[in-house]
What we know:
- By secondary structure, the chain is mainly α.
- The chain contains 3 helices and no strands.
- The protein is elongated.
Amino acid sequence: MNISLPDDMKAFVDEQVRARGFMSSSEYIRDLIRQQKDVEALRAKLHGSTPTPIAAFDESYFAALRARVDLKR
């Protein structure tokens, strides 16, 4: 597969390859595709899940969440 990019996009890809330690632009593009596949898989899981009622997110929920964060600091 060959992909043609305008000069500004090619320059961006080249910079990302250098800055993020990829060996080639192909490796960078493959990584982007893998990330997008992960996003799509997560969206599919979320789409099929049962939503949490808004009432479940009361002050005690957020207090517990803050406590968990504080423990990890």
